[in-house]
Amino acid sequence: MTDTTKTWPHHELGRKVSNWGRWGPDDEIGTLNYVTDAKRVAAAQLVRSGRAFDLGLPFDKDGPFKDGGFRVNPQHIMTLLPSDTNTPDNLISADDMVVMGLQAATQWDSLAHIGYDGFFYNNVPAAAVNSFVGAARNSFAKSVKNLITRGVLLDIAALKGVDRLESSYEITAQDLSDAEERQGVRVESGDVLLLRTGWVAWFHEGDRKNFLGKEPGPGLDAVPWLHTREIAALATDNHACEVMPSAVEGVGVPFHQVVIRDMGLLVGEMFDFEELATDCAQDGVWEFLFNGTGLKVTGSVGSPITPIALK
Amino acid sequence: MTDTTKTWPHHELGRKVSNWGRWGPDDEIGTLNYVTDAKRVAAAQLVRSGRAFDLGLPFDKDGPFKDGGFRVNPQHIMTLLPSDTNTPDNLISADDMVVMGLQAATQWDSLAHIGYDGFFYNNVPAAAVNSFVGAARNSFAKSVKNLITRGVLLDIAALKGVDRLESSYEITAQDLSDAEERQGVRVESGDVLLLRTGWVAWFHEGDRKNFLGKEPGPGLDAVPWLHTREIAALATDNHACEVMPSAVEGVGVPFHQVVIRDMGLLVGEMFDFEELATDCAQDGVWEFLFNGTGLKVTGSVGSPITPIALK
Amino acid sequence: MTDTTKTWPHHELGRKVSNWGRWGPDDEIGTLNYVTDAKRVAAAQLVRSGRAFDLGLPFDKDGPFKDGGFRVNPQHIMTLLPSDTNTPDNLISADDMVVMGLQAATQWDSLAHIGYDGFFYNNVPAAAVNSFVGAARNSFAKSVKNLITRGVLLDIAALKGVDRLESSYEITAQDLSDAEERQGVRVESGDVLLLRTGWVAWFHEGDRKNFLGKEPGPGLDAVPWLHTREIAALATDNHACEVMPSAVEGVGVPFHQVVIRDMGLLVGEMFDFEELATDCAQDGVWEFLFNGTGLKVTGSVGSPITPIALK
Amino acid sequence: MTDTTKTWPHHELGRKVSNWGRWGPDDEIGTLNYVTDAKRVAAAQLVRSGRAFDLGLPFDKDGPFKDGGFRVNPQHIMTLLPSDTNTPDNLISADDMVVMGLQAATQWDSLAHIGYDGFFYNNVPAAAVNSFVGAARNSFAKSVKNLITRGVLLDIAALKGVDRLESSYEITAQDLSDAEERQGVRVESGDVLLLRTGWVAWFHEGDRKNFLGKEPGPGLDAVPWLHTREIAALATDNHACEVMPSAVEGVGVPFHQVVIRDMGLLVGEMFDFEELATDCAQDGVWEFLFNGTGLKVTGSVGSPITPIALK
């Protein structure tokens, strides 16, 4: 089914922005290498008022996924109830478990999530991701220490003067520069860049069909900009951090292919920037300490997170 | 089975250190209220070198639990493999899921985990924790914003001149004060207090039986000290943050009962302080920015975490 | 919340049809005791043409349950794919798992599923069903050997001249006798009685809302009839084998309470009798060898099944 | 890694006993086609005393698998406890779920479980088994109607005069014929053939290491015999129905490859014949009605079962 004679434009772009080998042949965290010790010190200095903002959606059975689809919402199950205990001193106790996709609700895509032509980021062959060990390389588990850094929010919806971007709107490099200028902030090396599309409102309104539908997102045009700025990770408030349908005929996720596989960029999805964006618009401060550590699940391809911004 | 005529010493102690009502009748986060905006600002200032320390155990099937017990190790399962994709542009993709106890490996006990006499923290009745909604009150999900604060590590094993404390050793108030003096640090309101027992070495040595066995931990004697100092949360590097067996004849977890149910204190278990303790011993700095957000699972009683300390 | 002064009519009925103690104080299988060796021999003789009828719904994510409800549809997950294997002789292999409620789709309710006043069938206290061991008594696991016996299908929908019974229709003792007479068959000791309501058509039509809605089913009036006839188990083709809403004001499942807890009768739900009923109507034979063994899950309260009728 | 120049002896054997196309190009149940209506009628006649024998191991966390391996034991979890209910009439209720491999404990391997050279039984390509739909072809779900038929037990351990066969003993065609002669029974078209090795005793003795170790089983020599006799399915009382290690150097499961992929034969594993064998030795009757329906899980590769023999 693969047309090996065809040259795909996104794969050509991928070669131009490739970071393969940049941090050595064994590197598994890609652009998270931009998060240096000095970067962390500077990021911590951004905590000025001490206010905390929760950027995560809850994990539960009322999550974003619909009945019968490939991904399902988290199932939270009690495994011990107060009635199970019977001790002389009247102890009561409770325990619980969860059955969940690691990309259910707010989450990171690791560098083992998307590739093409048989390889993931940094020359990792497809077979390194298998049922026996999960992601033997590029696992999310390797990334946990570098996900606390400076965060910058660019409000693309506000730039365009709307509450939420329209369906299938493609965010361009120009949009990113315009948002910087409008907000008076500059994206720098080692930042986690947060792009607000306003799309998460569909979820809050209970409209899963639209939330999972033809969403706006960053397109291939934005890739060189993201590469040059040396961002550490990218996250959006919609379900896939990708224009849907994509501008490349017949190809579902060209942006993912290039940024995850070639650049080695972690991609965050289903974040919620509504409260944070309101605050930033009020005080004019669009930078903060971003905390998005996630879970160190061995061999994991993705990670659920509850990210917190501290201003 | 309950002896209602008997007065339990730990329940009497509980009344003395109770925080019920202190932050209002609807409060669900207890001592995390000590984490104020000002506290967060001060905590962020502690990031001086930018070094990051991972304080978590990995989540996988080789975790701390043993075959056939009540709790089981996390099961990580691939739900999409590179071979599943077949597109013209040669995309490969992977997805995964996890089936896990929310208290598997490194984790927080929420204020819905332990109670007695029919109530959890702040007058929440046992029936508020049920199979329909999980923890309708005191859920861990309420706590996520307040788990980034100053952390202080007290190395009790080093205080006692050993690599790991002996079985069933009870950490006292005097030990805590002695460790402060020895290290030149003071535990303050709003801190997350980390107690190193060295016990996690059993896990690293592959000895689950001892790791889950008669562990050292804080006893009832330490409770008033913890209460007075107004710590926000407490965590240890063993499996239960409790002396085992406890000093109260026939009672399994008296410390948990008092600090979680009466004080409203989050308790962390199965942390790993080995690398951090070595570093702190070298530079003499035992305070840092502690990040232990966890996951916002609706109705959850506990939360897996990968805590990170930034110095 | 319990009104202890009130005498409930279904509980009074329960006392009249009680089988507690009938098969000894340790009995855990209730009316399945009617399935004797002689009964099995006679039942096997009913296989005359050798045709097999599958009476089960499939177990999958497109099952009867809806998004966000208490019960969820089965999740079938591949845990090994052909691409995972790489041996000199080119082996390919696949493995899979399931996460499912034991009462997802076609299933048996065991005698540990429903009780009242603190007890399950045969004086088993509520606490015998707990998180540590599941159902310490009355588990479905005890029943597996007695679920192959004579089956008799009574087509109540056909009796009433409709494709499916109307919402909330209550099947009475008279209906059962009338159906016997119409079909020329008699329900006997040790039979599994199958009642066709036609309701499963809602599921086949993809209308989960109606399938899970106000269904027809056997009412309290039918209980003495079922008791006298000494049936071994009862199953229907709707989701709960109960008139919904029930005829007892404010009480959800009075029929379940009496037949499961007092009589000790296994109840089957979400069976599919469409193909079998058509065949029986054609040849006038409404009896067959019924095979509904289920799974021997230790401590289980229910069991998924794929029942097969052999004529 | 594949040596394409090499001709494998088991693959040559596979071509000789191949049933591909025998029941048409769309057939998905292979030798289960031998279970005809007439066969079912004859099998039912074998029920003479009405005694039932449970041939299954329980499904629970104390099952055959060991900590940290690829397959894990079933996890049974209560999802509703008596304490969760609070109605005026004092209802109590319980519900539960299971997380389990479909090949945990007693189970069938379907025709989508094992193949080679890129194909499963009847020319089904490897890609037909994927994460999206499970087994799109050859799923176990197709087989449920044909798993009630005549069963014949051949006691190979008794033939060899031992309680359990020695490690790695290979059962030959001669052994099968000798056992027939010794027992006075003949395996016929459409039978489920049960081979007793006595190996299950390791499991009953709590020795999982030996149970999962170098087991005895049928070898390639027996394949033509099984093919000629037209058995419908084959099951053993050890963990893999295969000599371990196999007689083919460097190849793990040559017997599985040939019988499942080429013959289209369902293979059952981890059955328990101890009680049945004792009974058969006493009355000299080694044939019975075998019931091994399993669960109709859509797209499933295997199925847990609790098989029942009726004599």
UniProtKB/TrEMBL annotation, chains A, B, C, D:
<dbReference type="InterPro" id="IPR037175">
    <property type="entry name" value="KFase_sf"/>
</dbReference>
<dbReference type="Pfam" id="PF04199">
    <property type="entry name" value="Cyclase"/>
</dbReference>
<protein>
    <submittedName>
        <fullName>Kynurenine formamidase</fullName>
    </submittedName>
</protein>
<dbReference type="GO" id="GO:0004061">
    <property type="term" value="F:arylformamidase activity"/>
</dbReference>
<dbReference type="InterPro" id="IPR007325">
    <property type="entry name" value="KFase/CYL"/>
</dbReference>
<dbReference type="GO" id="GO:0019441">
    <property type="term" value="P:L-tryptophan catabolic process to kynurenine"/>
</dbReference>
